[in-house]
Structures are given as structure tokens and as C-alpha cells.
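Subject line: Sequence and fold of a protein, written as C-alpha cells
Area: Proteins and the way their chains fold up in space.
Start of record: The labelled sequence and C-alpha cell lines come straight after this line.
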Amino acid sequence: MRQAASGEGGLPPGRRRLAVAAILLSTLMSVLLGSIVNLALPVMAEALEVTAAQVVWVVTAYQLALLASLLPCGALGEAIGYHRVFLFGLAGMAVTGVVCALADSLPVLVAARALQGVAAAAVMGLTGALLRHAFPPAALGRAIGLNAMTVALGGTLGPGLGALVLSLGSWHWVFAVTLPFALVAGLVGVPTLPRVAGTGRRFDMRGAALNALAFGLLLTGAGWLVLELWLGLCLVAGGAVALWLLVRQQRGKAQPLLPIDLLALPSMGIVLSASVCGFAAQMLGFVVLPFLMDHGWGFSTALSGALLLLWPLAVGALAPVAGRLADRHDTAILCAAGSGVLGMGLIALSVVPGAAAPWLAAAAIMLCGVGFGLFQTPNMRAILGAAPLSRSGGAGGMQATARLFGQSVGTVGAAILFQLLPGSASLVSLRVAAALAAIACLLSLARWRRGTTR
């Protein structure tokens, strides 16, 4: 197998720039695809003559497949080469995008979206490993910061691009608009992405099946907790049993699909727990803000949309700065500071008189974005940087799983609070989100006190 010079020293500068361009284009495509599809759901429901509850499966199927496939894709990347799995995922996203664009029924669309989730897992789960091999260790934070900035840019551009696409054509085009990104990323990435020889070990099919069952049941059960409590509890319990069986099955393996070997590293469990709490806090706050601005403060749709843009813009502005800081300073302190600022911003949103002073709401929203931008890049660097270079695929899959799991917790938490406290759910949710951010802060400080912060 061809071996490129992409070890601890990274790629040569010229090739590195092209490889990073391909990786960031793939990231941008993934984010745009998610945000545009969400915006198009009402149009899809009307065109396909289905209910709102049914059309939500276009998103749910994608999320379930994505979460269930992240760790297996990371393990597969270690076995046969990161670039192979990444490019396969990129091609898969393009092909399934065409199928989605041509779909004329909900079952076909949902099935294609599930396959697209698997392909997206191959892209998202291997991004961290490829960036780690493209950059020297001293610049890993900068690389992660660039990726985080790209995610924020996609989140900012997505709604506007989606509205433009829907105003010019049918909903089918929301799946086709990202195809040029895949084409360019593939053409640039094939000759430039880091080539790392795989271990050649046999892929763990049983572990992959247990992993899919565990995370699938946990995420589905969490969603059903709001609609049917006992069914939701049963599904969550089934997911917990599957996860326990997975842990037992993975013990003793040299490079397990479920990276329990990485969890044994100093403070890895702490930094992952902080990641889940931080992303849950961010998502919970971001989900309830539109309801607070509409029902609580009486803002217009235009004003609410403009204020919401401040959050990802602040994240994107801070991400590269946070990346450079993470390369030079203690990541635990940076994570603690970022999650602390995020918590303060969320508390401020729950007490400011937004209806009377929109500028105060804008300041609090920007504070949230600044805090989260300062938290996420050092947190991701701590996870990737702690793992051996040969386990970059497992570390990247684990980091992406923690992020997605945290976001799912935030979304489900918002749904539960709206069900239990319809009159005050927005304010209560912001305070719960602030508490989660405080937990992330305390966990990061605990990691700092242990002295295992790089």
C-alpha cells in the first residue's frame, strides 16, 4: 500500500493546503445539507402529501444512521486507510443526494437519507484523523479551529441558501445543490489527502451491529419519551442493554470498535463528558431561543432570524482564535473559560428584558457564541491529541459521537420541557442549559487539577 509522508510532521505545506480545502469543502457540504433539508421539511410534506410527523423521518433517519455509523467508520478507517473511507463516504453522499433529488415518495426519500447518514458518518468520523495527519502536532488546534469555523459558516449560510433554492425550484433541488461541493472536494482530495496505511485487521461486524442497535435504540427511545413514556423507557432500556453487551464484547481487543482503550487514558472520560454537556447546553439553548423571541419577546421573524445569526457568527469568529490558543495553552483552562462564558450568556438570556431592549438580547446571544466558540475547539483538540496517532480514527469517531449525542440530548431535553412546562419551557430550558454548561466548566477544571490537559 502506498504510504505518504503524513506522520507526526504532517503533509508538505502546498499539499496540506489542498488537502485541507478538500476536507473543509466536505464539512461545508455536510452542514449545508443538514440545514437546508430542515428548512424544506414543510414544503416536502405538502408536495409528498404526508403529515408533519411523517416527514420528520427525513431528518430522523439521517440522524439515526449517522450516530450509529460514526464509530464503525472510524474503526474501518483505521483498518483500510482513512482516506479510502473518507472518499467512499464523499462519493456515497453524492450518490444518495442524487437519489434523494429524484425521489417521488416518502419511503424512498427516507431510505436514501438513511444511507446518506451512513455516508456522512464516513466523512465526519474521519475528518479529525485526516486533519491530524495533515498538520504537525503543534498546529492541530489551528486545524480544528478552521473546521469549526467552516461548520459555523455552513450554519450561517444554510437557511439563506435554502430559502433561495426553494424560491427558485422544487424541494428536490435542496439535495442537488451540494453536489458541486462533493465533486470539487473529491477531485482535490483524491491526490492530496494523507495516505496512512491501514492495520489490515478484520472489521468487527458483530461490534458494528451492537453499536448500531445501542445508539439507535437510545436515540429513538429518547424521542419517544415525550410521546409515549413507557415505550420510550423500554427502548432506552433496550439500548442500555445493547451498549452493555457491546462493552463486554469489545473488552480485550487490541483496537476495539468502541474505543474503550482510549477511555482508559488519563482524563479522557472527563473531557468526553464535558463535550456531551457542552454540546447539549449549546443545542438546548439554540433550540428554545426562537420560541422565546416569538412568544416571550414578540420579535418579528426577521428580527429573530437576524439575532439568531449572531450565535454561529460569533462561534465562527472565535474558532480559529481558540484553535491557536489551544496549540499554545492549557486546553482544560480554555474549555473551562469557554463553557463558563456560555453559561453566563444563557443565564443572561433568561433574565434580560429582551422585549424592551433587543440590544441586550443580542449581546447575550453573542456572549453564548463567544463562549461556545472558545469551548469546542480546545475540547476537540484535547480528545484527538490525547489518543495515539494510530488510533486517530477511533478518537475522531468518539469525538463526533460525543458531539452528536450531546446535541441529541439537548434537542430531546427541549421537547420534554415543552411537554412538561408549556408556559415557561423557554426560560427553564435556558437555565437547564446554563447548568449543563456549568457542569462542563467544572469537569474541565477537574481535568486541569489532574494535570492531564494536553
